Amino acid sequence: MDPTMPSGADLFVVCKQCGSEVSPYVTECPYCGHRLRRRAPKLPRMHAASRTSSRPRLANMLGRRGRGRRIATDVADAGYGSGRWEGTRPYATIALVFAGAAVWVAWHAWPPLELKLVIAGQLHGDWWKLFGYSVAYGNGIYAFVTLFAIAIFGWLLESRHGPLVVLALFLGASVAGALVALAVYRAPILSGGNAGALALLGAWAAPDLRAARAGRYYDGDLLGAGVIAALLLVLPFAIQPASVTGLDLIGSAASWLAGVCGGLIGLLVGLGLGRLPAAAR
Q1: pTM of the predicted model, to two decimals?
Q2: CB-based burial label for 144 (10 Å; 0-12, 13-18, 19+)
Q3: Of all helices (H) and strands (E), which one includes residue 151?
Q4: Which of 62, 209, 214, 275 is deepest in the core (most CB within 10 A)?
Q5: Full set of structural domains in the chain with CATH
């Protein structure tokens, strides 16, 4: 028999006024209104034994909260940004993607535009090509893959560090990649933003790579980022060689060397951002 249940003698009481059997847990008789007692008796504690199990559950909840705080601390210390740019529109990323798409349409509408933007051979004083080539695409597949990568990783990086970081990193990596290619090859042909796209990807993946190496929590998809990075690196060898109007030069429009240089710059910048104080990101 359950010790918390009332005994048989306590199942009811007899009203002295009308002789009716009523519940032992009422103060007045429901039949005649005679007052049986001043206050209702205390109910038995049916779940008294379960109170002892509430402390472990509370401890588990506090433990989960503690782990959540540690995860939040790891995220804040790993270079994921201060959080002030979350929820804002990625204007810099939109501008880069729009510029690439607009130049691709203009190139096919007016082919001589490639001479104004594409780097074909040495610069010979045309310094603006260091910036212009990164938004000039002659191949549709190359344009689609590169602009898709810029849209994804530029948006993700901009939500962490803001538009100025995205613009400076994209343009800086593109210029650095072009200078390296110009220094290595006698007559390189460069067009498109594969160097800038790989820089954005590398800067976004750097905190996750550092967290994975240290065994800490991270929420990014490094496998998907690795597939896109491999695709960007293979594109210069997969697309058809580009020929530039008026010049007898043959080479890939997308430079693998510029892409590798951009990816390394992005990784270094991403690791450097992770060492800044959270308020400065």
Answers
A1: 0.68
A2: middle
A3: helix 140-161
A4: 209
A5: 88-280 (1.20.1540.10)
